[in-house]
Amino acid sequence: MGPTRLTTARLLLRPTVVSDAGRAFDIQSDWNVTRMLRMARFPPDQEDIRRWFADHRSEWRAGEAYRFGVECAGKFIGLVDIDEICAGWGDLGYWFERASWGHGYALEAAPQLFTLPSTKWGSLGFAPVMPRIMQRPDACSSDSDFATLIQRG
User: Fold this and answer.
1) Hey, where are the domains in the chain?
2) pLDDT tens across 34-61, in order?
3) Which of 26, 27, 44, 94 could form a disulfide linkage to 80, CB 3.0–4.6 angstroms apart?
């Protein structure tokens, strides 16, 4: 499966590119964003973020991670991904600029990753959760409720 673009009513999800690193640095310079990320350091290091973004394409080709930049009205506002894919399991993650919190962007973006035409998605360990979320979008009133639902399955 090669990189692809996905759209929702409000968002464009597209494979990340190295040039996203500058905006990602700005977003992760907000402690309230970075403190929610399990592997990010604070304050962020621009070169570390650039190297991380530079590695995304090879992770995609290897089937280790699928990372999408999320744009709203043409502006990069965050990232949604499936990473640490190994032995049929992967982690769903996301982060957004703080100005975008509370708008339901994670709830809108994350299920799109499971619409990709690939047999890999059906074999990942969290896939059974997504049909329930997509059938009942009212089950989550916020991004944090969505994360809790994903964790509980």
Assistant:
1) 6-152
2) 988 878 888 889 999 999 999 999 998 8
3) 94
Task: Label the pairing between strands 66-72 and 11-15.
Answer: antiparallel
Q: Chain-centre distance of CA 129, in angstroms?
A: 16
* Topology of domain 6-152, CATH: Aminopeptidase (3.40.630)
Cα-Cα-Cα-Cα dihedral sign, residues 17, 72, 95, 24: positive
- Which of 113, 143, 141 has its CA nearest to residue 8? 113
Question: Is the pTM here over 0.85, yes or no?
Answer: no
What is the average per-residue pLDDT within 68-84?
94
Query: Which residue bears the tokens 């699928």?
Result: 66
β-sheet with 6-7: strand ranges across? 6-7, 11-15, 66-72, 75-86, 89-96
